[in-house]
Design goal:
The complex is a heterodimer of chains A (277) and B (311). By secondary structure, chain A is α/β, with parallel strands linked by helices. Chain A has 8 helices and 10 strands. Chain B has a domain of 209 residues: MetI-like fold. Classes of the chains: A alpha/beta (277), B mainly alpha (311).
Chain lengths: 277, 311
């Protein structure tokens, strides 16, 4: 039904000296009903990759397909959640959630039924008529998730949705997302720099290295579901984490070495520092 | 990793809620009043606000009642008040106030009706921006008052000349300010709309325009103040009615008290307009985050949020 296929995706941002290579030949598949995560440092192009799947950015090379359809623009079949708060401040929680339905002129009663259910699912009962300004960051992201789900999209694309939240709220949101996903079993592509988060949530973790963004590792996470916070304490979780950290460490060393050779005075601090989100 | 380090942080806390109520700073006058960006006691705000009017008023009274300045150069406050009474009672000053106000209203309305849509289009569509911005950026440096002689030749001394001055003074600035506002709408708001299935037209009408409106009303509030400046200049140059005309007539007959009374009237009209716009903003856009109000409200709601508990 809904399978995301990236086929030799390449992204070059125009600039001097032939531009900046942001993504180098990325091929990956998120199977129907799978939860896939992409981890990588800031500036590795992981958000760009997600925006390409969302149809917001056109890749320089390669192609992205949803099942067999070529993606060539954004659409209601791919719901997105961003890290920054993107609720419409002039709309109440309910109006935000039903916006996609309203765009398609879905009748009011139907919209009400859908929003009622989603509001309950993300635990915002009693806030249906509140404006976003009255909500905390975690609550805003709950609404953003509900808004994406209201369209019943074929896939859910999430770009560090909990990145701006504090540690406690983030844990709550991860469990909420697990719960929602268990029930809907939608295909998800999730971008994060938090390795714990990626392992906890995903069926497959893809590790992306920086400059240019290159796929370094595909790691299936066969931890039992349903998962919870306790999953993170298990030895197998730790083993997965070690595997990912090793790759990232090796990448950092490689990049640091490269920087040293390029210019002695510039130090070795390039491994993790940011380019763009 | 980060999580393990932070899990033992005490108490429930939700993000985006500002830290607990500000601790009272200890220390003397300097620490309370001279720490940048920190608030001061509410009573102090009130006292300072009253002083901001009381000090110049007091200085005025001392200079005039004390005989430092002669009454012709600077009449005393009492004289100005009785001049104002006289103007309303005998000179039908209210007709002049109305004449000026209606010119402002018409000129400002024309500027807004033309300038707001064009500004939003300029801020939203690169093509419209490329077509209009060079000309408008040039035109806004042309002083509106410099057009008065030309407009008198074209339109005579009538109402249309006064209105035209206001439009020239306001329209170009308004366009550029509104363009900045719509260009500043967070791009993710548009992107999300596309991913929710919105067409280009819907993104424009249902996201970009509503997202721009609060800023537009704020801009209108600022621009209407400028409209007064241009109008008074136009009325000083040639008019049969209006506050500017009254000022000029008073100067010719040597009634400085009437000049000051007329100037103060403009100030009061400005304050009323400003308050009206602020009220309108509050009524139209109750959802806009306003400083001071959000913090406390977010804290209260965060306490009601069961998901912030027990973690």
């Amino acid at each position: 039904m809904s399978r995301i296929v990236l086929d030799h995706v390449r992204m070059v941002y125009p600039g001097r000296d032939g531009g900046v290579l942001a993504l180098n030949d990325i091929s990956l598949t998120v199977e129907e009903g799978q939860f896939g995560a992409i981890v990588g440092a800031s500036g590795c192009g992981k958000s760009t990759l997600l925006n390409i799947v969302g149809g917001l950015v056109t890749p320089t090379g390669g192609e992205v397909r949803l099942d067999h359809e070529l993606i060539d623009g954004p659409g209601a079949d791919r719901g997105m959640v961003f890290q920054s708060y993107t609720l419409y401040p002039w709309k109440s929680v309910r109006r935000n959630i039903e916006f996609g339905l309203a765009l398609r002129h879905v009748p009011k009663e139907r919209r009400r039924a859908v929003t009622d259910e989603l509001i309950a699912q993300v635990g915002l009962e009693g806030f249906a008529d509140a404006y976003p300004k009255a909500l905390s960051g975690g609550m805003k992201q709950r609404v953003a998730i509900a808004r994406a789900l209201a369209n019943d999209p074929r896939v859910l694309l999430m770009d560090e949705p909990f990145g701006a939240l504090d540690a406690q709220t983030r844990v709550v949101m991860q469990e909420l997302l697990l719960d929602i996903w268990e029930r809907s079993r939608k295909t998800v592509l999730f971008v994060t720099h938090d390795i714990d988060e990626a392992i906890l949530l995903s069926d497959v973790v893809y590790v992306l290295s920086s400059r240019p963004g290159t796929l370094r590792l595909r790691l299936p996470i066969d931890l039992d579901r349903p998962r919870s916070l306790d999953t993170m304490g298990t030895p197998r979780f730790a083993a997965f984490k070690r595997q990912i950290l090793e790759i990232i460490h090796r990448e950092s060393l490689r990049e640091a070495g490269l920087t040293n050779r390029l210019g002695a005075g510039r130090g070795t601090a390039s491994a993790g520092d940011a380019q763009t989100g | 990793m980060e999580r393990e380090l932070r899990i033992d942080e005490p108490g429930p806390r939700d993000d985006s809620v500002p830290a607990a109520p500000r601790r009272q700073r200890r220390g003397g006058f300097a620490a309370t009043y001279l720490t940048p960006k920190e608030s001061i006691p509410p009573l102090a705000v009130l006292v300072l606000g009253v002083l901001s009017f009381a000090i110049p008023l007091g200085a005025w009274a001392v200079l005039t009642y004390g005989g430092v300045i002669d009454p012709f150069t600077l009449p005393d406050p009492g004289a100005v008040i009785s001049a104002l009474q006289y103007m309303f009672a005998t000179n039908n000053f209210i007709a002049d106030v109305w004449a000026s106000s209606s010119r402002i209203l018409i000129g400002f309305a024309i500027s807004a009706i033309l300038g707001v849509p064009l500004g939003i289009l300029m801020g939203s569509f690169r093509a419209v921006q490329a077509l209009f911005e060079p000309l408008i950026s040039f035109a806004r440096y042309l002083p509106a008052s410099a057009f008065i002689p030309l407009l008198i030749v074209w339109l005579g001394f009538g109402e249309s000349e006064k209105v035209a001055i206001i439009v020239i003074g306001c329209f170009f600035q308004l366009c550029l300010l509104v363009a900045d506002i719509s260009a500043g709408v967070q791009k993710e708001l548009l992107q999300i709309a596309y991913t929710l299935g919105a067409k280009r037209r819907q993104v424009f009408t249902r996201v970009l325009i509503p997202a721009s409106l609060p800023g537009v009303v704020d801009t209108l509030r600022i621009i209407v103040g400028w409209a007064w400046t241009y109008l008074i200049v136009a009325e000083l140059v040639g008019a049969e009615t209006g506050i500017g005309h009254v000022i000029l007539a008073a100067q010719r007959t040597g009634f400085t008290d009437q000049i000051i009374a007329a100037i103060l009237t403009i100030g009061i009209l400005g304050l009323i307009t400003d308050a009206a716009f602020r009220l309108l903003h509050h009524l139209l856009f109750p959802y806009v985050e306003r400083p001071g109000q959000t913090g406390s409200r977010a804290v209260v709601l965060a306490r009601l949020n069961p998901f912030a508990w027990g973690r």
